Amino acid sequence: MSTTTTTRDETAILAVLQEHADAIRARDAERTIAAFDRTVVRYDLAPPLAQVNGTVEEDAAGLRAWFATFDGPVQITHRDPTVVADGDVAFVHTLTSMTATPTGTTESFTLWFRSTYGLRRLDGAWAVVHQHESVPFHMDGSFAAAVGLTP
Amino acid sequence: MSTTTTTRDETAILAVLQEHADAIRARDAERTIAAFDRTVVRYDLAPPLAQVNGTVEEDAAGLRAWFATFDGPVQITHRDPTVVADGDVAFVHTLTSMTATPTGTTESFTLWFRSTYGLRRLDGAWAVVHQHESVPFHMDGSFAAAVGLTP
């Protein structure tokens, strides 16, 4: 695991995540889907426990419905991601912020959550095959999602 | 990435996760901590967003306080974990169940959550350097953690 290789891989891996964030910001459903591998196993902020990938058309329709709940761009920012790569496998963990304005309101909100990505190098290019996004929950008996945390 | 190597790595990686589960089941705080690398970056079920590792003594005290909230064993079971490994880096994702009986009650509960682990091979042995555990939350305005989901 030479430093040069790691740095080059790190740059390529972060570019994949940035392309995904840029696609979401542009509210482009097909581009968002194309940013990750079609076999991606996703543990999302919303139920179920694990997403079942549909066709591109089905998944794009779901994303468009989600984009429609916001006015203007949906901004995703990763804070100091840690990239660990060797050979053809890598993972990334980072805290992530999402800032958006719900449709029909003028006030934006920012949600901080945890993100972990698993990647493989497929045909020479890094591909996200696993995504895990979450907030913790309060164990005070309320079982309330901790949506107000900041790093 | 030969099949033989992957299979040997997979077995070794799953043994690390099993040792961690066995240590929790045995309610052994020091053994639980020793199962993962001391640099592990943890995104836990409970706040904060990311855990800050203390000394072994501090972390063991925290674990013992958590074990004390349950009567009898705390059983952690990973369901069909997917292991992706190459060179000296690996990640694992799986749905996980935890079954335990709250202290002072006779009724056990089972909680299903999502687990992702990031590993490095350090000095020839696989070590968990990242753990991400979560449940999703309901996006119906309640912001309630989805603690009742099953695979």
Describe this protein's structure:
The structure is a homodimer of 151-residue chains. The longest helix of chain A has 23 residues. With 151 residues, chain A is an alpha+beta fold. The first copy, chain A, is 27% helix and 38% strand. In chain A, strands 1-5-4-3-2 form a five-stranded mixed β-sheet. Chain A has a single domain, classed as Nuclear Transport Factor 2, Chain: A (Roll).
Protein traits:
homodimer, 151 residues, alpha+beta, Nuclear Transport Factor 2, Chain: A, 5-stranded mixed beta sheet, globular
Class based on secondary structure composition and strand pairing of chain A: alpha+beta
Order of helices and strands of chain A: HHEHEEEE
Question: How many H/I helices of chain A?
Answer: 3
Strand content of chain A: 35-45%
Counting DSSP E segments of at least 2 residues, the number of strands of chain A comes to 5
Oligomer: homodimer
Largest sheet of chain A: 5 strands, mixed
- Sequence of strands across the biggest β-sheet of chain A: 1-5-4-3-2
Q: Helix amount of chain A, in percent?
A: 25-40%
Radius of gyration of chain A: 16 Å
Kindly identify the CATH topology of chain A: Nuclear Transport Factor 2, Chain: A
Distance between the termini of chain A: 31 Å
Which architecture of chain A does the CATH hierarchy give at level 2? Roll
Number of domain modules of chain A: 1
CATH first level of chain A: which class?
Answer: Alpha Beta
